[in-house]
Predict the 3D structure of the following.
Amino acid sequence: MSSLMPAPVIPAVMVPDTAEVLARAAPMSRNEREQLIARIRQLLRKQDAVLVAHYYVHEDLQMIAEETGGHVADSLEMARFGHEHSATTLVVAGVRFMGETAKILNPEKRVLMATLEAECSLDLECPASQFIPFCDAHPDRTVVVYSNTSAEVKARADWVVTSGIAVQLVRHLKEQGERILWAPDRHLGSYLQQTTGADMMLWPGACVVHEAFKAQALAEMKRQHPDAAVLAHPESPAAVLDLADVVGSTTQLIDAARRLSQHELIVATDNGIFHKMKQAAPDKLLIEAPTAGAGATCRSCAHCPWMAMNDMRGLAHVLETGDNEVHLDEEVRVKALRATARMLDFARSLKASGTAAPRQA
């Protein structure tokens, strides 16, 4: 059983235009770029700092992270890497909830972000001021929140989860007889309910990038590329997932790109992932899933505008000045840690047991 909750009406989110965000950056010469990279490397060493970058940020930031002993990953692996690394400063290239998660897990470390402007539509559409009273009104349900939420929302949750382990966790809770209140992504929640059969009440949020993918246009693209496989993130609408050959988290989609036999891959997630996909499968042709078509209103057009706010100049600035440090109320952090640590413990148990994530839609 699944139900989209009778709202509170979620707040309207002002979504920046990705093209406009990218256009703000001043052009950079090759020499300036090389000097900036060298400066960032030096600052990371000097400050005992490690860079953790999400798959969706610019490939330059991903490259710097990889080449300086940092990490490029999905939000689960970002959290785990930062928690286990010995560096005294964590620098997060991503969106705000990722920096908050790093601080939740590492109160003794300084956590900096390349930019504090980088929000997430899922986080913004699930404000704690509305979410907490709703949870209190449904005390019979286990509260499971996606990692794309604020520290305050995580503090009210019983579990935090990422897309990489969401199916296994929800199935586990169903087997325990739990009824679930899920937030904030309704498309991922619907996919989880369909996959596991769990009784879930769904908060009505959505990702501005993934919701923009259009099933009708994707079906036409498949006709034009009949031998292509479709890879889709489960934050995409159900009609898009129905056309996918593989549904999975960012890490799972990169793995699929590596192992699938098809030469052409149509990818329905943020195009920032193409950097790692090309490394994993250099022989494959990667094609963006369409965001155009009937009803198209997308401003992100397959790339998150907030992820696009991360750049090398901003990274160098925070390392030089200490700006953009993440601070959390300690009571909130401790409460949020419970559900976040449960996520990491559950992920470790899956890994130890060799439980494989589902690969097929």
